[in-house]
Amino acid sequence: MFNKVLIANRGEIAVRIWRACQELGVKSVAVYSKADAGSRVVQLADEAICIGPAPAGRSYLNVPALIEAAHMTGADALHPGYGFLSEEPDFAEICAENNITFIGPSPDVMARVGDKALAKRVMKESGLPLVPGTEDTVDSLDDADDIAQQLGFPIILKAVAGGGGRGIAVVHNRDDLPRIYASTRATAQQLFKDSRVYLEKFIPIFRHTEVQILCDNYGHGIHLGERDCSVQRRRQKLIEEAPSIHLSPEQRAKMCDTAVAGALAAGYSSAGTVEFILDPNGNFYFMEINARIQVEHPVSEMISGVDLIKEQIRLASGQPLRYTQPDIQLRGHAFECRINAEDPDRDFEPDKRGKIEIFTPPLGPGTRVDTYVYSGWTVPPFYDSLVAKIIVWAEDRPSALDRMLRALNETTVEGISTTVPFHRRVFSHPEFRQGNVFTDFLVRHMNMASG
Length: 451
Ligand code: ADP
Ligand code: ADP
Ligand code: MG
What we know:
This protein has helices at 11-24, 40-44, 63-73, 89-97, 107-114, 116-125, 141-151, 177-192, 249-265, 297-304, 308-316, 397-410, 420-428, 430-434, 441-445, and strands at 4-7, 27-33, 47-52, 77-79, 101-102, 155-163, 166-171, 197-201, 207-215, 221-233, 236-242, 270-278, 284-290, 333-340, 342-343, 349-350, 358-360, 367-371, 386-394, 412-414. It is α+β, with helices and mostly antiparallel strands. It folds into 3 domains: 4-103, Rossmann fold (3-Layer(aba) Sandwich), CATH 3.40.50.20; 132-201, Dna Ligase, domain 1 (2-Layer Sandwich), CATH 3.30.1490; 207-446, D-amino Acid Aminotransferase, Chain A, domain 1. A hairpin with a 5-residue loop joins strand 12 and strand 13 (284-290). The chain starts with a strand and ends in a 6-residue tail after the last helix. The mean pLDDT is 96.
C-alpha cells in the first residue's frame, strides 16, 4: 500500500478521496489554488500545499507544481479525481517518470480509450455494437458530407478528445453541415487542443446507460451493474440512478459482460465506466469509455456496498481484485442529485454571489451527501458549479424517490441559488416517478429549451 497520496483535485471529489485515504490508513496531501485556501479538504488532509493562483491553468492543471508538491511531501501516489488532468495520458506518464503512481489506467490505455474514435474501433473488435457512424476521424468536409448522406440527417459531430458534453454538435440538415463542421472543429481545437472529429447517426430518443467496471493489473475485471443517467441538460448529467429499470436481466447481463470484456481486451485497469446508448427497443450501442472515477459513482457504491475510491487505490498499489463477479450482490435502488450553484429559474445561470450563508445538508436513513462546502464558504467562480451531491438509497425505487424528496425538502442553502428546487420538481413529476425518462426529459416534460 502507498505511504501518502496526493489529491490532485478540488471540491467534493477531493474530500471523497481524502475519506478513502483515511479509511485505508494512508496519509494524504491536499493541493489547492489561492481561491480554495479555505476549502474543506485543506482542513482535513495531513498536509496541504498551495500550487498556484485561482485559474485552473495555473493551479490544478499546473503539472510542474503538482509534481513538485508530490516530491516536497514524499507522496508516492497521486489521485486525479475527475476533470482536470484525470484523462491526460501525458500527465500519467510524467507521474510514472517521477516515481509517482498515477491512480488510474496505464498511460497507453488512457490514450487508447481517450481517443473516442479509436476506442470505438477497439470496442468493435470485442464485439460491442456501435452507433452507426465513423470509427475513423472525418478529415474533410467532403468526407463528412459523404458519410452524412449515407447515414441520413440528423447526425452528430463529436470531438475525438471531447468530454463533459462539450465539443458535440447536432446537424439537422445538409445545408448546416459546412458551418457546424467548421465550428465544431474550432471548438474542439480551442477546448481540447485537438480539432479531430468523428460522426455518428443522431439518436433522438434513448436512455444514457453506463456500466461501472473495476479491473486489476492482472487481467481480471468485474462490473458493479449499470446506472441510468438520462436526465441531462445540454448533454450534462443532472440526476443519476442505479440500477436502470429498463433492462431485463438478460439485457443487463449482456451489457455488463460485454463492457468488462471490451475493457479487458483494451488492457484496462482501475475503475472505469463504459457508456451506452439504450434505445427504446432495448438495443444498446457503445458510446465511450471514461477512464476515471465519475461524478455519479456513489449510486453504484450504494447498491453494491463497494467503496470505489478505496478499490482504485488498492488496485493501483498492485493488489489483485478482492472480488469475483458472484461476490457482487446488488441491492435496492439509489439516486443522485447534482446540486449546482446555478439558478434553475434563470436558465441555470451560475450564481455569482458566491457566499453560502447557511448550508444544512440532509441527514437520516439511507442519505449521503458528498460535498466540500459549509456555512460561510464562498463558491469560487473559477471552477465548475457543483457544490454537493445528494445521494439516497432505499430498498426499492418508489421508496428511494420518496426518500430523495424528503432529503431535498430537508436541505437548506441560503445565500446562493442552487438546483435544489429544480430537483424537487423532477422528483415530484409523475413521468419521472414512473421512469418514463429519455434524454429529452427536460425538454419534453419540464418546459426547458434544448440546445
Ligand atoms: P461524468 O461522466 O462523471 O458525469 P462529466 O462528463 O460530467 O463526467 O465530467 C466530469 C467533470 O469533468 C465535469 O466537471 C466536466 O466539466 C469535466 N470534464 C470532463 N471531461 C473534460 C475534458 N475533456 N476537459 C475538461 N473538463 C472535462
Ligand atoms: P462526453 O465525452 O462529452 O461525455 P459522449 O460521447 O459521452 O461525450 O456524449 C455525451 C452525451 O451526448 C450523451 O450522454 C448523449 O446525451 C449525447 N450523445 C452522444 N452521442 C449521441 C448520439 N449518437 N445521438 C444522440 N445523442 C448523443
Ligand atoms: Mg460521456
